[in-house]
Structures are given as structure tokens and as C-alpha cells.
Amino acid sequence: ILKSYKSKRKVFGKVVFVEIKSKYPLNSTIASILANKIKDKIIIISQKAGNKYRISLRGKLLDLNKLVRDLSKDLNAVAGGHKEAAGMRIRGKKDYEKFLERIKSVF
Prior knowledge:
Elements (H helix, E strand, L loop, with lengths): L4 H4 L1 E3 L2 E6 L6 H11 L4 E8 L2 E7 L5 H8 L5 E5 L3 E7 L1 H14 L1
Parallel strand pairs: 2-3
Antiparallel strand pairs: 1-2, 3-4, 4-6, 5-6
């Protein structure tokens, strides 16, 4: 996954966004590893599990806890974390697509 992230990543301004596929819950681990390598961006890793999406954010550019709470408003989602490490769980593709639109509009 780490070796192929460059070909799968999408960059929106200060954000590096990667959707990963694995039978193991690796989104948090991958986000942390990439954040240590790419310090001038916010790292967002998304991983689908059934009809839920697990999203991990890492970075030092802004308060990620506040960001995920703002992005999750009016979505079928749970969000929280810390200033430099936060996460979300979104239920349903429709709300996940709304989240993606919001990320693009913020950055």
C-alpha cells in the first residue's frame, strides 16, 4: 500500500488524499506513516468497510479535530480526535461523497 500510494493519491491544495483497500484496518497506521514523511500537507486516508468508510487525518497545519467535526455535520458520521490526529466513520456512499465534496471545497 505504501509503495503504491503515489499513483493512487489525489492532491487538493494542502491535502494528500488516498483511498486504500485492505481486509485489515490500516487507515490510521498509513496516515501516521505518511504524515511523518510528508510534513507540509494534511494526510487523509480513507478505507471502505462494508457500507462504512473509515477516515484518518494527520497533520500539523490546522486543528484536525475541529475540521472533522465541521465536515461531519449533517452526515451520518461520527468524528473526533486531537489537533494533529483525527478520524471519522461515515455510513453510506451518499454521505461519503458529500464528505469528499466538502474536503475539496475547504482546500
